[in-house]
């Protein structure tokens, strides 16, 4: 394709996109395909000769959508939604048009400074103190890995990056069992080791038990182990559990431990002042991650890491070989020094478009609706025959079981979710909670309307009856 053909094809792609989104409700949320079915439709060998673009586009239309799970479907109630508001999609198109490498200020001045501005906007939107700065990362997994590496190096006084980890003291990291597996991954990849991730007991509300955190730190010190960091959780992935940050971050601070808060999903809800009581104590965190690519509407990927003292992370991650040195080094931010990858996409643009085109009030309205509808849905499902709510709505996530008398509830709940997802009108996923197989119901898709939630409840009821 030549550049002079781009406008016509872009227009065609945009028209296709509009039609795709307008007709999503007519598609099953999850496609009815078997592994390998799609692969078999793709030639095993690459073409030697150029193909007409008409054929390429036609194959996309014919093959791809029917073999995709539709994350932007208004009846997607699985995992956590990964929204892509149209304003943010359009920004991605423009960022693609420029396709800059945003590693250094001088490779991307506007992208770098727009990133600084967007971090500052979001910091205010989430009521994080002015002293925090931040960076846009690809995913929460990367943000958390960066934070855990900083925890490690701060505890080792930056000897790990120079000498390696052999012969270094054993470090310990503390988090509750409600935290996401990305914490486990970070601890493994940072060379701290899974066995040194202490899963602190939770209380009856699945929040980390502060007294247990305190005694775990003391016991480890007594054994000659070196506590390095505490990871708090706001809106855990399984059931939406949150820690009492004011208590656990204070323990971290009193023990001079680096702290990180994983609010990947629920951080977006902090744009609504009425939900911020759960955020109490956030000013004590050293690092905070939240993903605008989940609930805020920025299309994937876009994860924000706020940092109280960026210099600790920069000291851990930055390398300045002479070919990357820039002359204005002291007056600017080179955001690649805050991150693991060197190359960086222009992600700030979609935040700029998104926040301006909705305004904070427009984004707040989405989140408030989702939380209100989740509360209503939990109430209605709880009233259906043989259904029980296992964990109450936390933000817009709750879990339930289907337990007709005389049957194993785990088995029946599994049968129900299989029936729901084979049916295709809605999409739900499961988790194990307290040893129970439960169905997660979460609302977060921007195009979801109350009628979609109502339909989900009727589908659940209808399919449960068919299983009886
Ligand atoms: C989704 C999620 C993650 C992982 O996010 P990625 O951006 O996909 O790495 C981590 N923690 C929580 C609480 C999440 O909900």
Summarize the amount of helix as a percent range.
Answer: 25-40%
Mind telling me the CATH class of the largest domain?
Answer: Alpha Beta
% residues in beta strands: 5-15%
Which small-molecule species are bound to the chains here?
pyridoxal-5'-phosphate
- Write the element-wise H/E pattern from the N-terminal end onward: HHHHEHHEHEHEHEEEHHEEHEEH
What form results from the Cα inertia axes? globular
Structural overview:
This protein is 40% helix and 13% strand. With 468 residues, the protein is α/β, with parallel strands linked by helices. It folds into 3 domains: 3-70, dopa decarboxylase, N-terminal domain (Up-down Bundle), CATH 1.20.1340; 101-345, Aspartate Aminotransferase, domain 2, CATH 3.40.640.10; 359-467, Aspartate Aminotransferase, domain 1 (Alpha-Beta Complex), CATH 3.90.1150. A 7-stranded mixed sheet has the order 1-7-6-5-4-2-3, with helices on both faces. Strands 8-9-11-10 form a 4-stranded antiparallel sheet. Helix 4 packs parallel to helix 11 and helix 11 crosses helix 13. Pyridoxal-5'-phosphate (PLP) binds at residues 80, 139-141, 180, 182, 236-237, 262, 264-265, 291, 303. The site of pyridoxal-5'-phosphate has 13 residues, from helix 5.
């Amino acid at each position: 394709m030549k550049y002079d053909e781009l406008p016509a094809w872009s227009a065609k792609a945009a028209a296709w996109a509009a039609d795709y989104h307008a007709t999503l409700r007519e598609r099953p949320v999850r496609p009815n395909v078997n592994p390998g079915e799609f692969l078999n439709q793709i030639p095993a060998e690459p073409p030697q000769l150029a193909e007409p673009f008409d054929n390429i586009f036609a194959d996309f239309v014919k093959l791809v959508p029917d073999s995709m799970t539709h994350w932007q479907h208004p009846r997607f109630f699985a995992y956590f939604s990964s929204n892509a508001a149209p304003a943010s999609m359009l920004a991605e198109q423009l960022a693609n048009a420029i396709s800059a490498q945003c590693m250094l200020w001088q490779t991307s001045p506007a992208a770098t400074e727009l990133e600084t501005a967007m971090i500052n906007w979001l910091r205010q939107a989430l009521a994080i103190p002015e002293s925090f700065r931040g960076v846009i990362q690809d995913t929460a997994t990367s943000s958390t890995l960066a934070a855990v590496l900083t925890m490690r190096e701060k505890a080792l006084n930056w000897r790990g990056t120079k000498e390696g980890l052999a012969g270094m003291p054993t470090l310990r990291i503390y988090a509750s069992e409600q935290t996401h597996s990305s914490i486990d991954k970070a601890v493994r990849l940072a060379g701290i080791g899974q066995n040194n991730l202490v899963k602190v007991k939770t209380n009856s509300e699945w929040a980390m038990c502060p007294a247990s955190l305190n005694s775990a730190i003391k016991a480890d010190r007594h054994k000659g182990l070196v506590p390095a960091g505490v990871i708090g959780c706001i809106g855990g992935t399984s059931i939406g559990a949150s820690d009492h940050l004011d208590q656990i971050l204070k323990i971290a601070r009193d023990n001079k431990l680096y702290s990180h808060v994983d609010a990947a999903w629920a951080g977006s809800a902090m744009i609504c002042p009425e939900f911020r009581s759960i955020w109490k104590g956030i000013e004590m965190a050293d690092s905070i991650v939240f993903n605008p690519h989940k609930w805020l509407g920025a299309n994937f990927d876009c994860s924000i890491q706020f940092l109280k003292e960026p210099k600790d992370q920069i000291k851990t991650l930055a390398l300045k070989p002479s070919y990357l040195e820039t002359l204005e080094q002291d007056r600017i931010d080179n955001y690649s020094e805050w991150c693991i990858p060197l190359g960086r996409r222009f992600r700030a643009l979609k935040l700029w478009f998104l926040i301006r085109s909705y305004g904070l009030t427009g984004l707040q309205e989405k989140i408030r609706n989702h939380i209100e509808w989740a509360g209503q849905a939990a109430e209605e499902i709880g009233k259906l025959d043989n259904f029980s709510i296992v964990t109450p709505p936390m933000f817009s996530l709750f879990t339930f079981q289907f337990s007709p008398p005389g049957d194993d509830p785990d088995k029946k709940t599994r049968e129900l979710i299989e029936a729901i997802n084979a049916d295709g009108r809605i999409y739900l996923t499961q988790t194990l909670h307290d040893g129970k197989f439960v169905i997660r119901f979460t609302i977060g898709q921007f195009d979801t309307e109350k009628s979609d939630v109502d339909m989900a409840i009727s589908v659940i009821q209808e399919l449960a009856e068919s299983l009886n």
